[in-house]
Input
Amino acid sequence: MKKVNIGGKIHTVLDENESNDLSNYGPDKAVIIDEQYVLPVYNRPKRSAVGVYYGGKDSIINRIVKPSTEEDKEKYSVDNIVDLQTATTYNELVEEYNRLHNSETYVPKTMKSGFKGYYPETRANDSLIMKTFKKAVSDKNVDISEYRSRFASINNDLRLMSAEDITLKKLTEYCNVFDIQVKIELSNKNDSVANPLSKPYECIVTDNDEHYGYEDDNYYEDEEDDYDI
Output
């Protein structure tokens, strides 16, 4: 997980694949431009501050304002990016957090000696569901050692959680582990579909492992679980 402090605000740095999808853009995001600068993204086309501006009728990138002064070039330099996943020891993690917050003494309250942050890496081949799951877990900034007792087999489960895809059953299981709610909604794809649904149908699939949140007596599980993940 890459972060950068721009003007006292922490931004998540989007990778190349994420930067190509405007649905990933938001007020706390930043993108790398020309391999030199990391710029915040804005949905306010009339602003003139340094940054990447997107949105409008066609939801496209409208304008890129690059730093021009030497002060701004240093402020928005990619050298300021902090990659929390590169830290392998507690001291290295504290050092990276200190860099991120521009403080020589800052230590997050959630951190302690032996902290083992879990930030599953998202990859280009990951399914949309898997990318969403990995991003959500990374955002929680958990100490994975504190969750050990919640897993059936933590080493095997960590391997499965780093895969490119995931089944609904496993997604439900792991989201329960991390106290993340999963909601499914079934609705019409658009207003012109044949035989449209009269209303959306939704259910919460977490916190109900037996039937994944469904109340249908005709719903059943296969007796043998064989998930190729």
About this structure: The mean pLDDT is 78. The helical segments are 16-19, 70-75, 90-100, 128-140, 154-161, 168-177. Residues 2-80 form one domain.
